[in-house]
Specification:
- It contains 13 helices and 11 strands.
- With 389 residues, the protein is α+β, with helices and mostly antiparallel strands.
């Protein structure tokens, strides 16, 4: 009697089941997907904004992982509404947090209002008396060149005290913490030129302090520290913070009454997000133009000497080259070309993405290696939303 064989289709259909059975017999488990997001991140998401919800939750977990240091706050806004929000231990939505270098963006907005008022002029020589002496080449430095970080002044940025080097190697550290701390503007303005004005881009913590001093000079000509502090603080509050709804925001001043425009600006994460929204809407709030549109457009235009930087703001222009050899790109291959960011030391970010209708804020404490992880994970978070690459 001939042996009956199962039909070919039935025999083939048994192969996957038999293979899995054999794998199970060898003690091997079937592949598993990524782990679910933590309960904290799931609770943080009010609306996924079009991103895959589980992946968004895992991305938020990644930004609160131990390997990025300490994340104090993360806020994601879409179309002007908070869609995700999470805080670290001891931090609340109303807690003011230091933006460090993001203060230069606030300083640029204040200078923009002064230009709008006709008290400063973008293309003219910066009105610093010490630079106006006959034969001083620093008299060629314009306000525009200062805003675009191409003054040519010798401003060393290395954190020598942190890395163990000589304090004399870092103008930034000397200005903020040592012999320049009582009169930071005087220290920053006393530095000589190391390149012709306008010729090279050098990111400088001293430059926003010079810009803050210019603001104080036009607002309080008598130079008394208390009056300088009050008049600049009032102007900043009335013309920048209050119109933007940044009611938690405040700025620090040195003993000479100069605003420390490169650091010491504190605000809650939600208020930092309002700054990003303001820039994303090119200076308007609910249709009201608070700052001339052309000024914000200037802030978001590439500097002639670094297309990855505008005026107080970093850019994601695709024509820039990634890496230290060329102009920096914020998130190469991850985000649209019109993405911008206010950046601060130790991993502070206010990111705006006009095409994606997004603003993202991350505040925390990270060292240099951890900052790189934060940066990469923020780029990947942006890429999850519609309108990205």
């Amino acid at each position: 009697m001939p042996v009956r064989r199962p039909p070919l289709i039935l025999a083939l259909s048994l192969v996957p089941a038999l293979a899995l059975s054999a794998l199970a017999g060898c003690g091997q488990d079937a592949p598993q997907g990524p782990p679910p997001p933590s309960s904290e991140s799931q609770a943080a998401i009010k609306d996924d904004g079009g991103a895959p919800r589980a992946a968004l939750g895992r991305a938020i977990d990644g930004l609160f992982a131990e390997d990025v240091g300490r994340t104090q706050a993360l806020v994601v806004m879409k179309r002007g509404s908070v869609i995700a929000e999470r805080y670290g231990d001891g931090v609340k939505p109303e807690t003011p947090l230091d933006g460090w270098g993001m203060g230069q963006c606030v300083t640029a907005l204040m200078v923009g209002q002064l230009v709008s008022d006709g008290r400063l002029r973008l293309a003219e020589s910066a009105p610093i008396p010490a630079w106006q002496r006959p034969g001083d080449p620093r008299g060629e430095i314009t306000l525009k060149q200062l805003l675009q970080m191409r003054s040519g002044l010798r401003h060393s940025e290395s954190d020598a005290l942190i890395t163990g080097g000589s304090a004399g190697q870092s103008d930034r550290m000397r200005m903020l913490y040592l012999d320049g701390r009582d009169d930071m503007a005087a220290y920053a303005e006393a530095q000589p030129l190391e390149a012709p004005a306008g010729a090279h881009f050098v990111n400088s913590a001293a430059t926003p302090v010079i810009l803050s001093d210019l603001a104080a000079r036009v607002l309080s000509p008598d130079h008394h520290p208390d009056r300088r502090r009050k008049v600049v603080g009032d102007y900043l509050r009335n013309r920048v913070f209050t119109p933007l709804g940044m009611f938690s925001a405040s700025a620090g001043f040195d003993r000479s009454g100069t605003m420390v425009g490169s650091a010491q600006v504190h605000a809650s994460a939600r208020d930092w997000a309002k700054l990003g929204e303001f820039l994303r809407h090119t200076g308007s709030i609910q249709g009201a133009q608070i700052l001339p549109r052309r000024w914000v457009q200037f802030m978001l235009e590439p500097s002639p000497r670094n297309s990855g930087y505008g005026a107080g703001v970093w850019l994601n222009r695709t024509k820039a080259k990634a890496g230290p050899a060329g102009d920096e790109v914020l998130f190469p291959g991850m985000a649209p070309g019109n993405v911008f960011a206010c950046l601060g030391e130790y991993g502070q970010y206010v990111i705006g993405s006009p095409d994606q209708l997004l603003t993202v804020v991350r505040l925390g404490e990270s060292d240099a290696e951890q900052e790189r992880l934060v940066h990469d994970r923020l780029g990947k978070l942006l890429a999850m939303f519609p309108g990205g690459l």
